[in-house]
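Appendix B: a complete holo record

For completeness, this appendix reproduces one full record from the ligand-bound portion of the collection. The bound molecule is pyridoxal-5'-phosphate. The inputs are the chain sequence and the ligand SMILES; the output is the full three-dimensional arrangement of the complex, encoded as structure tokens. No fields have been trimmed.
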Amino acid sequence: MNHFENKAAWAMQKDEQDELASFRQRFHIPLHHGQETVYFCGNSLGLQPKQTSHYVLQELQDWATLGVEGHFKPHTGWFGYHELLRDATARLVGAQPHEVVVMNHLTVNLHLLLVSFYRPTADRYKIICEGGAFPSDRYALQSQVEWHGFEAADALIELQPRKGEELVRHEDIIEAINDCGDALALVMLGGVHYFTGQVLNMKAITEAAHEVEAYAGFDLAHAAGNLELKLHEWNVDFAAWCSYKYLNGGPGTVGGAYIHERHAKNAHLPRFAGWWGNDPNQRFKMPHRFVPVPTADSWQLSNAPILEMAALRASLELFDEAGMSRLTAKGKELTSYLLFIIRDVLKEKGKSEWVHIITPFEEQMQGCQLSLKFMKDGKAIFDQLTAQGVISDWREPDQEGRTEGVIRVAPVPLYNSFMDVWRFGEILKTAL
Ligand SMILES: *Cc1c(COP(=O)(O)O)cnc(C)c1O
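The structure of the chain with pyridoxal-5'-phosphate bound, as generated:
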């Protein structure tokens, strides 16, 4: 167990010892009344690296001076710009370089991957997904199922926590997979749950899915850049993520996808085709037949959004420099410190029973996010936090009134500090 203290001097000393501390200076930190905010919203929209504008402006300038010639300029030619992101992306998610591609946006990529990995038959057509999934994921799965002529109520198996519990238990996921057996086409889950912050055992879930000859795919919106991932080693079939949350690529920026090499190399696996997925040597010859590149690139349809990619490139360089294993280690420590501070403040205020922390405490089940469920005055406390310079995220109670409101706070290792966490505690104290 870590030793923590709720003292400014202690937090300051931790920051001084932190070998990743200097990365904070490479980001723009939003201000509140002239002082840096406590920005705990990197799980929703990551902050802007200072290098981002430089890279984006470079491409604007090249466009101004080169026009169409920019496609083939040295080093950063737009024709192969996505190549500049490939290796860093592969390291980020633990994949081989030819298993990843930066393209489109998350929901679009989910649909494109489902085209290949959800090909139901009369007997095998079910999908295991999470109950209370992020709406876009639910809509994507629902519409895919219905587009294939099945009923969502029948084809979608939505995992629910046991009565009186908040999290789906791992053993219940495995049991659902085994129970569904031959009828199961696909397991499609969030690697980190967007609401509770729970991290799933993606390796074991993939194994269980393969055991019954189903595919396993993950939405990594809240996992990419948050945790060390080993998609290739875990044998995951496919995954997709967005790049504006932990990855700091900027609002609505281009997303990413992973396809295991055994599928990427399989030319018989159906996929929707466009000219950018074609063998690049053939691209401008415009052959009549689509010849897929034997890599994840073959899922690309259109030519790439260069300005978005330029923005993402700035951030991926920082991830590469810091490395996911060091980031994950710091993220865990920051989050554990936050947990300690919140409990300490609640205890001091005699309000421990006001807040229930939904996110599981076991380290391997936790990323950078804590979800705090307030039994009382949640919205008022959230407003107080905001008024005093904390940027976090409020989730309304659900319409049926089954849950209380939840504040999600995420200290991220690239730009948050131990002092941020300590300051959060002080502000929470006055808010309570
Ligand atoms: C953020 C998020 C999305 C957003 O989808 P976009 O297509 O990028 O708008 C989808 N699913 C999950 C689980 C998310 O967390």
